[in-house]
């Protein structure tokens, strides 16, 4: 699904965000990436999205080398990847349903079809009955569920999450991770970056550890 081959990312003049990082994530895997703040986790995710290009080495997504991807094919790559951030990035003046349905608009689905699929996705993340609420009317855990619904409504093969539980209390964080487990069980590959070890302890998932840009495990 994703392969890093000796990837180095430099930010001039003197930051080595990633230092000769190599690893693969297989289709269907659920992998955690951890390490302290500044270790390179977000940089690694941005390279998979081709928001950044490596200074050296190559990133492959579904076998394709991203440095050779033509700019006009980048949106297509990103449509195949769902992204979830710590701060949700929901549109506050749109309902939960509209936030999710908007992710489908670019696909040329009819409005009716889009609404139907968005509703089904909100239901799948446990938000049945909340579809007409605006983000400020929802709790933190509910807002993050809307963001997850938005990320998965296109049925991406790969889900990237960057500190997705960062603003949630431990119980809600646990619920969100359980939701990721369910998505993974239904076939979505997941890469979840977090500095919070309690999210993966006792989960028996592969954990990649970054320290100052180096993969140390
Ligand atoms: P993490 O997500 O693990 O906190 P980051 O990938 O955000 O780590 O950052 C890794 C290093 O790269 C840090 O030293 C950070 O300051 C630096 N960095 C990240 N993005 C940029 C950028 N766009 N320009 C310059 N330095 C950056
Ligand atoms: P564009 O579509 O213009 O290329 P980007 O993909 O660079 O936009 O992302 C827009 C914003 O979202 C930027 O501020 C970027 O740092 C942030 N961003 C993108 N991908 C991630 C990620 N995986 N984790 C954290 N922040 C991200």
From TrEMBL:
| InterPro entries linked | AAA+_ATPase, ABC_transporter-like_ATP-bd, ABC_transporter-like_CS, ABC_transpr_LolD-like, Cell_div_FtsE, P-loop_NTPase
Q: Please provide one cellular component term from the Gene Ontology annotations of this protein.
A: plasma membrane
Q: Name one GO biological process term.
A: cell division
Main localization of the protein? Answer: membrane
How does the record classify its membrane topology?
Peripheral membrane protein
Q: Where is the signal peptide?
A: none
Task: Quote the subcellular location field of this record.
Answer: Cell membrane
> What terms describe the molecular function in GO for this protein?
ATP binding; ATP hydrolysis activity; transmembrane transporter activity
The record places domain ABC transporter at: 2-216
**Which controlled-vocabulary keywords does the entry list?**
ATP-binding, Cell cycle, Cell division, Cell membrane, Membrane, Nucleotide-binding
Question: What is its quaternary makeup?
Answer: Homodimer. Forms a membrane-associated complex with FtsX.
Q: What does this protein do?
A: Part of the ABC transporter FtsEX involved in cellular division. Important for assembly or stability of the septal ring.
Family designation:
Belongs to the ABC transporter superfamily.
**What is the protein named?**
Cell division ATP-binding protein FtsE
Origin species? Thermosulfuriphilus ammonigenes
